[in-house]
């Protein structure tokens, strides 16, 4: 069984309903509010945590010819070119278009930490993320 409790004004009881549905129906609970998850307040137990990473382009300066193909490919304007290529990591959506389209293969895969995935196991299993 899958039940989704989604959206709505803060303070209306979404988390309370979700936690109780999971608890009394022996379901796994996943709190997908990664900005401010709060189901963990109600579920006690040992917290296991792992870091979450995403693609982040790395420019090989010795291969880059400053041609601008990567900049033009970026739909989010996360690449600037002056005397060298600058990646604005907060704007990058990790789509890899820059890497795939670079004619010189001057962009390789790097990674940046975007948060943590946490799991609590007690009577029910809770999984949540934190940016």
Uncertain spans, ≥5 residues at pLDDT below 50?
none
Q: For the terminal residues, how far apart are their CA atoms?
A: 28 Å
CATH topology grouping of the largest domain: Alpha-Beta Plaits
Mean pLDDT: 95
Task: Walk me through what this model shows.
The chain has about 130 residues and is α+β, with helices and mostly antiparallel strands. It has 2 domains: about 15-50 and about 115-130, no CATH class; about 55-115, Alpha-Beta Plaits, CATH 3.30.70. It has 3 helices and 6 strands, in the order αββαββαββ. A 4-stranded mixed sheet has the order 1-6-5-2. A two-stranded antiparallel ribbon has the order 3-4. Strand 5 (about 105-120) and strand 6 (about 125-130) form a beta hairpin. It is elongated and about 60 Å long. The mean pLDDT is about 95.
Topology:
Elements: H1 14-24, E1 29-31, E2 47-59, H2 69-73, E3 79-81, E4 85-87, H3 97-101, E5 107-121, E6 125-130
Keywords:
131 residues, 3 helices, two-stranded antiparallel ribbon, 16% helix, Alpha-Beta Plaits, alpha+beta, single chain, 2 domains
What does this entry show, briefly?
The protein is built from 3 helices and 6 strands. It has 131 residues and is an alpha+beta fold.
């Amino acid at each position: 069984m899958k039940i989704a409790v989604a959206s709505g004004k803060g303070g209306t009881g979404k988390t309370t309903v979700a936690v109780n549905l999971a608890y009394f129906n022996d379901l796994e609970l996943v709190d997908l509010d990664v900005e401010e998850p709060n189901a963990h307040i109600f579920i006690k137990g040992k917290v296991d945590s792992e870091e979450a990473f995403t693609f982040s382009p790395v420019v090989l300066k010795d291969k880059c010819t400053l041609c601008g193909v990567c900049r033009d490919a970026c739909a989010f304007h996360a690449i600037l070119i002056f005397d060298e290529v600058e990646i604005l990591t907060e704007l990058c959506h990790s789509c890899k278009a820059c890497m795939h389209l670079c004619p010189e293969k001057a962009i390789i895969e790097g990674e940046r930490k975007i948060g943590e995935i946490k799991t609590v196991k007690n009577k029910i299993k809770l999984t949540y993320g934190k940016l």
